[in-house]
Amino acid sequence: MARVREISSGRKPLKRAYVAMFLWFTGRAIQAAAKADNQVKSEFEALPENFTFSLGCLPDGPWMVVGKKNGVVKYLGGKLPEKQHVRLAIKNLDAGFLILSFQESTALATTRNRLVTDGEVPYALAVIRILDIVEVYLLPKIIASLAVKRYPKHWSVARKLKGRIAIYTRALLGL
Amino acid sequence: MLLPDYYEFCCRVKLIAGHDALEKIPELLAAKGARKPLIITDKGVAGAGLVDIVSRAAGKLDPNLVNDSVPPDSDLKVVHELAKLYQENACDALIAVGGGSVMDTAKGVNIVVSENATDLMAFSGVGALKRPLKPLVAVPTTAGTGSEVTQVAVIKDHDKHLKMAFGSYFLLPDIAILDSRMTLTMPPFITAMTGMDAMSHAVEACYCLQKNPLSDAHALAAVSLLYAYLPQAVNNPSDRDARLSMAIGACLAGMAFSNSMVGLVHNLGHATGSVCGVPHGLCMAILLPYGLEYNLHKREEAIAGLLLSMAGPHIYKETPEEQRAQKVISLIRKLNDDLHAKTGGRHARSLSEVKDRDGKPAVPREALPQIAQAALLDGASVYNPEETDYEDNLMVLEAAWEGKPLDRAKVKKG
Amino acid sequence: MKVESLLSFTCPVKMNSGNKVLEGLPFELAGLNAAKPLILASPNDTPPKAIKILLSAFGDSKMTFGLFDGIDEAEDLGTIEYLKNICQKDRYDALIALGGRAADAAKVLNMTVSYKLPDARLLTAETTINKPLGPLVVAITAGATGLETSSLAHFGNRVYRSEYLAPSLAVIDPRLAVSQDAAAMACSGLAAFARAVEAHGAVPENPFRRAYSFAAIRFILENLPAAVSNPGNRKAALAVANAAAMSGCALADGGNTGLHKIGQAFSGTGRGPAGMIMAMALPYMLNDYKVNGGFDLAALLHPLADDDTFAKTPESERADAATDIANRFVSGLQKTAGKALPRTLKETGLPGYLLEDLLETLDAGPDGARLCSVARRMWDGVSPDAKKG
Ligand SMILES: NC(=O)c1ccc[n+]([C@@H]2O[C@H](COP(=O)([O-])OP(=O)(O)OC[C@H]3O[C@@H](n4cnc5c(N)ncnc54)[C@H](O)[C@@H]3O)[C@@H](O)[C@H]2O)c1
Ligand SMILES: [Fe+2]
Q1: What pTM, to 2 d.p., does this model score?
Q2: Which structural domains are found in chain A, ordered by start?
Q3: Which end of chain C has the least Cβ crowding within 10 Å, N or C?
Q4: Quick one: fold of B14-182?
Q5: What is the ipTM of this complex?
Q6: Which residues of B sit within 8 Å Cβ distance of A?
Q7: Residues C165-183: pLDDT tens digits?
Q8: Which residues pair with C160 in a beta bridge?
Q9: Rounded CA gap, A48 and B56, in Å?
Q10: Which residues in chain B have their CB less than 8 angstroms from residue C6's CB?
C-alpha cells in the first residue's frame, strides 16, 4: 500500500534572483522619477515626511523599500523596515514574476487579487499612481498601454523621451 | 461568457429567504451550538417594532441582551461597549438586526469578542483575521448595502476622526436571513435610495475591472429583480412579494460587488457623502447614470447586456444593438425620475436638488472641487475601468450637479 | 418574484481560477490558519505531471507537506483510518485533494479527523455531520466529476451529505485542466452540463442557485466542443473546469434530482462515467419534465441560447426551444465522440439483469416511477416522443 511521504517545498532561485533584480531596478527608477518627473515629484511632496513603502513577495521576499527623508526620495534597499506606511505584498513569487516582468501591471494585478495592500488607502493609492507612471517610463508603449488603464497620450513627446532617458540613466547609476 | 485570466469568488454565507424566514433562527442557532445571542440594532429599527418581530419569531429573546445603541454609521466606543455586554453575559452568538450601520457594528463587535481584543485597530486592514469568529446572524432591514454578504466593515473612531476598514472572509456573517417583514416598515424615500444603492452595486459589478463570470451572473439576476420591484415597493410599501424580491435582489447585488468591487459611482459617492453628508443611497442614485456614461467606451457590451435583465425581452428585442447601452442609461434616469415623483421630490435626481434637514441645498456648487479632490483618496478608483484624475472627477460632478447627461466627447479615453 | 416556501442556498466554497492559481496555495492556506497540508491524489485519476505541477507550486514557500498518492478505486475505509492516524501523529492541519476521486476521500478523511472518530471504519452514511470540519482544498483537474465542490462525498458505495463536507477552497488552474483525454473531457463537461441544467430548471426557482448554473451552462455550451476536439486547449479546458466546479456549487436539492441520480446509479456499475450516462439520459429526462412538469424548461432557454435568441423567442415557444438546443448539443458531442459516448444503455454492454437491479434502486425514491421510465427508454434508445402515444 502507498504511504504518506513528507516533502519540503523546493526553491526557485532563478525566479527569485530575477524578481530581486527587478525590484532593485524599480526601486531605483522610482527614486529617479521622483527627480525627473513632475507628477511623481508632486505625489511624493503630498506624502508625509519619512513616508516609507515597500513592494515585494510573500512569504519572505524579495522586497524593495522606498522612503522619503528630508524631502528626498530614496531607494532604501531590500530589507523590510519595522514600520512602514504602505506595504504592497504580492501573494507569491510567481505572481511577483508576472508583475515584475511586466506581464501584468501593478494596477491590473491589484484588480486580479494578486496583491495584498496594507496601510491607509489614500497612501496606497498614491503609491499605485507612482508605480503606474514609472511603468509608463520603463516600458515600451505597446506593453505599457496594456499595463495602464489610460496610456498618457497627452504627455508631450519631450516628457516621455527626456523622462525615459533620465530615469533609465539615473536608475542605473543610482542617482 | 468571458473567462478572465484570473479571478476569485467567494460568498460563504448561508442564505435563507422567505416571508417567515425569521422562524428558522432558533434551529440555525442550535445547529451552531449557540444558546445566548446578543441582539444588536439601532433606535430606528427597534422603534419600527422590528426587534419585537424577531423576538417573537426567534422564540423570546432576553430583553437585557437586546441593545439598540448603534448610531448612524458606526462608532468605535459603541463597538467596545457592546463587546463588554457580550462578554459579561457570556453570550455565544450575535444577531444583527438593521441596515449597513448595524451590520458593520456587529462585525466589529465580533472581532473584539472572538479575538479577545483590547484594541480593535490591531485587526484593521486586510488579512489580519486568521480564524473563524463567533456565529453571526445578519438580519438586514434595508434592501441596499448588501452588507449581510460582504467581507468588509467600516468602523468610525469619532474621537480621532478616523475610519477604520476591516476586510476578511471571516467577517462574512454565518447566516443571512432575508424576511419580508423586516423591510415593510421602511418609508418610501429610504426604500428608494437604499434600493438604488443595491442597483448601483449590481451595475458597477458588471463593469468594474474585477468582474468575473460569477459576479456577472449574480449581478444580472440582481438587476432584473431590483428594476422590476423597486417601483412596486415604493408605490406599495406593504407589498410583501416586492419587499422580499428587493431583499433578495440587494443580497445578490452584494454578492456580486463584494467580488467584483465597485468603481466611479461609489468613488465619487463616498467623497460626496464625506464632504457634504449626503446619504450614501442618494449619492448612488444620482451618480449611477454618470458612471455608466463615463465608462461606456470601455464597457459598451457589458452595459448593453444589462438591458435584457432590466427591461425584459420585448424592449431588448426592439432596441437596435448599438443603442442598447444608451437605453440602459436612459432607463436608469427614468427610474430616478419616477422615484423622484413618488417620493414627493425627496429622491433627488441631481446633486443640486439634494436638500439637507433644513431644506437648504446640501451640495453647493463650490463644494465640487473639494469632492473631486476627496475622491482621489478613495480606493474604489482602482477598480474603475477608465482612469479618473481630479479633472475627470470634477467634470462628472459638474454634470451630476446640473443633472445633465455627460458630454462624452470630453471623456479622456486611453 | 413569488416565494411560497423558504428559499435557501449555501456555497461555502471560495473559487480561485486562472493563471498561476496553484502558486497562491501557500497564501490561501495561511489565510485558513493552516501550515502543513496533506495532499491526496489518485494515480489513475490524475493527469500526468499534475502531482509535479502541484508540488512545484509550493516552491519557495518554505512549507512542509505530506503527499499520499495511493487513493484508489477500492475506496476502502481502512485507507482512511491509516491516513487519519498519520494526520494526528504528524499534525497535518489541512487537506488538499487533487482530482475528483481524491476529493471524495478527502471529505471522508476530513470528517474522520475533525470529529476525532476512534476508527474510520465506524463511519456510516448516518453519521451526523453538524459541525465545521478542517480546511479542505480541492484542485479541479481535467475529468473533474463536478462533485468536488459539492456537499456530497461518494465513497465506498455510500453517500455522505452535509454542507460541512464542501471544501473551503477550489483551485482551478489551466495546467491541471488540460489533458490528452478527449472522452474524459467530454464526460466531465457533460456531467457539469446535466447537473447545471437541472439546477437551473428546478422549481421553485432559486436565484442564487440559478446564478451559478447560468454561468456553468454558458461556459459548457461555449467551450466544451473546443475542449473535446482539443483537450489541450488551455482556455477551453479552463472554462470546462470552471463549469464543473460551478455545477457542484449549484447542485440542486442536495443531489435529489433525476439526472444526477441516474448518473450516480449507473456509473456505480462501472459501465461508464456519470457524465456519459447523464448525457444519454438528458433527452429522456427533459421529455419527462415536459410531460410531467415540476421543472421550468422555459427559463432554461436563457442560459442555453444567447441573449438575442432568447429575447426573440415568444414565451410559449421557449420550453421547446430550450429542449431542442440542449438535445442537439448533447447529440452533437455524442456524434463527435463516437464509441466513447454511447447513446443507449444496451451499447454500454450493461447486462439486462443489472438493469433490473438498478431500476429497483431508482424506484425507491418518491420520483421512482418517473426515473424508471426514463431509464427504460435509455435502454434501447427509442425516441421518447415515439413512445409517448
Ligand atoms: N459593510 C459593508 O459592506 C457596507 C457596504 C455599504 C455600506 N456600508 C455602511 O452601511 C451604512 C449605511 O447602511 P444603510 O443604507 O443600510 O442605512 P443605515 O443602517 O444607516 O439605516 C438608515 C436609517 O434607516 C433606519 N431603518 C433601517 N431599516 C429600517 C426599517 N426597516 N424600517 C424603518 N427604518 C429603518 C435606521 O434606523 C436608520 O435610521 C453606512 O454606514 C455604510 O458605511 C457598509
Ligand atoms: Fe453602495
Answers
A1: 0.95
A2: 13-173 (3.30.1050.10)
A3: C
A4: Rossmann fold (3.40.50)
A5: 0.95
A6: 4-8, 125-127, 165, 208-210, 261, 376-379, 381-383, 385-387, 412-414
A7: 999 999 999 999 999 999 9
A8: C153
A9: 55
A10: 16-18, 20-21, 24
